[in-house]
Amino acid sequence: MMYALSKLLNDKELIYLSLMYQGLDKEAISKELQFNDNRKHSYMEKRIFDKLSVHNWHNAFRSAFNLQLLDRQDFLLIDIQKEASTISTKITKILNATEIDDKEKELVIYLALLSFQIKIEYSYLFKEKQ
Hints:
Helix content: over 70%
Largest sheet: none
Distance between the termini: 26 Å
Structural class: mainly alpha
Mean pLDDT: 81
Radius of gyration: 15 Å
């Protein structure tokens, strides 16, 4: 059973999932995974969502934790102030970006805040259980 779960996502998909959870933007993920085409992101996201039977990152992260595809210990080490500072800097950078339109800015900010919210939510949940 555990073997089947570990093979649910391939190595690249697991890395992509982890990098998204960490809040990296698509440019950073492209560098990390050596994507040379932005269409790879849509392809990778669709494959992950399909395999986890979800429609958004929030549910993908929840499912990944339930299936133990992401390490729950990462949540126990979260420094809330550092995360808040990081998200604040990221949002400021997005708002000041001139190369993307307002709709894309809105989506990127939403995803960044969602990632932050999930980290905080799980951090408290797991600390309480210890």
